[in-house]
């Protein structure tokens, strides 16, 4: 390669379906990191990758180069076998990481979770946690190690030192319609997990109407790509395929999801959320040899939620990441008035059921699109979001409802929930006969480590 890479040439090669060499991929990632590549060129390269794809070797080279764009964390020897994590491909109402990280810490694991912000219509753990005043997602490697020593888990974002290439690519993918690309997702997720120097990792690969991949077959291909990249990096990596048609839990939107995650940590969360947290955590414990069966792994995670041990870890993590002790205590008390700490939107509106029957589905994609338009997500890189925008579902799938029952409460400010949006939102509620109910379990497949 010449000293200054010819970026238009690289973009052209990928655009025309060529295979990039490891050296060319290194030049691309370096150009992203040191800003010698312009944002317009980065956007064009992302679109070329989205269109032409990458073979497995290119995807692995991309993942490694992204990981090496920053610091690769190293942990004390005595933590060998203890450092674990979970990551999801994103969904609607997916707040699983928030209770799961402290639950794993309560079990004795070390969880250096590097998460992301909202991508397209899906929510991001970092945005959710930033609805808590003072919560600081920017932590150095040294600070992360101290928090893992003192607490056992932290949830942080990419920085100039930690997977900086993903920090840039993630934000540009979000605004260039290049999120749903197998090599880009693999590079993004697995570079972060590689930089965490994990022993073991569980991935939640979602499929369905509100997921990036709509059908289980393409989600399975993505899961296999992620699992093989993980194992190539020396991480014991397994995945579950889970359905993402209806939102997870009853709350969608950043601060409302924090409330629901806290309820789960207090042993009172919705059954589907509790089930997903214990399933993913249980699978991770089993996969990494810390539980003898999947069932006992699930039970161990369940115990940390029911005993309050995970909640205490979460409270300690909040304080370690900048939340005042008074606010952390208030959020984690069993009779918390969450609005003392989390800002509540000034306006709420409830929508009514328009026909009698059984709730067959609450379309997470439609709901996410409405919340996005109300300010819960971004359309420009780095744009501020309104953490208080969200929705509470007042009915669940399988429930019998009557005309006039309230089915959803929307929290909004500016822009307002106008008639057009209300009409669009009504399309999310699917009512019908109970024999049309889908009885598929949320988690339908486990992909073991290679
Ligand atoms: N989470 C990430 O960290 N990166 C991605 O590309 C997706 C989810 I999709």
Please explain how this structure is put together.
The protein has 17 helices and 13 strands. The radius of gyration is 21 Å and the shape is globular. Strands 1-4-5-13 form a four-stranded mixed beta sheet, sandwiched between helices. It is an alpha/beta fold and 450 residues long. The longest helix has 17 residues, at 216-232. It has three domains: 7-53, Transferase, Pyrimidine Nucleoside Phosphorylase, Chain A, domain 3 (Up-down Bundle); 77-334, Pyrimidine Nucleoside Phosphorylase, Chain A, domain 2, CATH 3.40.1030.10; 347-436, Aldehyde Oxidoreductase, domain 3 (Alpha-Beta Complex). The structure holds 5-iodouracil. 5-iodouracil is lined by residues 89-90, 116, 119, 179, 185, 188-189, 192, 212.
Query: Kindly, what is the distance between the CA atoms of the first and last residues, rounded to a whole number of angstroms?
Result: 35 Å
Mean pLDDT, as a whole number? 96
User: Do you know the CATH topology of the largest domain?
Assistant: Pyrimidine Nucleoside Phosphorylase, Chain A, domain 2
Secondary structure: helix percent = 40-55%
Which segments are poorly predicted (pLDDT under 50) over 5 or more consecutive residues?
none
Beta-strand content bin:
5-15%
Give every kind of bound small molecule, once each.
Answer: 5-iodouracil
Counted by DSSP, the helix tally is 17
**Total domain units:** 3
CATH-scheme architecture of the largest domain: 3-Layer(aba) Sandwich
Q: What is the tally of beta strands?
A: 13
Order of SSEs? HHHHEHEHHEHHEHEEHHHHHEEHEEEHEE
């Amino acid at each position: 390669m010449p000293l200054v890479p010819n970026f238009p040439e690289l973009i052209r090669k990928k655009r025309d379906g060529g295979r990039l060499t490891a050296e060319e991929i290194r030049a691309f990632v370096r150009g992203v990191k040191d800003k010698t590549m312009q944002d317009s060129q980065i956007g064009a390269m992302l679109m070329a990758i989205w269109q032409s794809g990458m073979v497995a070797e290119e995807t692995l080279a991309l993942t490694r180069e992204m990981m090496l764009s920053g610091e690769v964390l190293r942990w004390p020897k005595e933590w060998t076998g203890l450092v674990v994590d979970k990551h999801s491909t994103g969904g609607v109402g997916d707040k699983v990481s928030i209770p799961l990280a402290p639950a794993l810490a309560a079990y004795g694991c070390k969880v250096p979770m590097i998460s992301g912000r909202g991508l397209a219509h899906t929510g991001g753990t970092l945005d959710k946690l930033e609805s808590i005043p003072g919560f600081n997602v920017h932590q150095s490697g040294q600070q992360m190690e101290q928090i893992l020593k003192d607490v056992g888990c932290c949830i942080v974002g990419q920085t100039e030192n930690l997977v900086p290439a993903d920090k840039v690519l993630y934000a540009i993918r979000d605004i260039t319609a290049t999120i749903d690309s197998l090599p880009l997702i693999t590079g993004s997720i697995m570079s972060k997990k590689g930089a965490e120097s994990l022993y073991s990792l569980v991935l939640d690969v979602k499929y369905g109407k509100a997921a990036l991949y709509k059908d289980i077959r393409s989600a399975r291909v993505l899961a296999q790509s992620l699992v093989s990249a993980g194992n190539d990096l020396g991480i014991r990596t397994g995945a579950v395929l889970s359905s993402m048609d209806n939102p997870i839990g009853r709350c969608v939107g950043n601060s409302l999801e924090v409330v629901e995650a806290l309820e789960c940590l207090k042993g009172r969360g919705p059954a589907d959320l509790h089930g997903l947290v214990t399933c993913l955590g249980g699978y991770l414990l089993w996969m990494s040899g810390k539980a003898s069966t999947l069932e006992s792994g699930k039970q161990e995670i369940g115990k940390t939620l029911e005993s309050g041990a995970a909640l205490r870890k979460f409270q300690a993590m909040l304080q370690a990441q900048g939340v005042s002790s008074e606010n952390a205590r208030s959020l984690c008390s069993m009779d918390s008035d969450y609005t003392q700490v989390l800002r509540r939107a000034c306006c709420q509106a409830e929508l009514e059921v328009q026909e009698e029957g059984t709730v067959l589905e609450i379309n997470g994609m439609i709901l996410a699109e409405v919340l996005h338009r109300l300010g819960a997500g971004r359309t420009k890189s780095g744009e501020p979001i309104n953490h208080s925008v969200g929705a509470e579902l007042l009915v669940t799938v399988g429930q019998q409802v009557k005309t006039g029952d309230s089915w959803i409460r929307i929290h909004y400010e500016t822009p307002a929930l106008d008639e057009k949006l209300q009409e669009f939102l009504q399309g999310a509620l699917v009512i019908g006969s109970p024999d049309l109910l889908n009885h598929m379990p949320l988690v339908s497949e486990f992909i073991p480590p290679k």
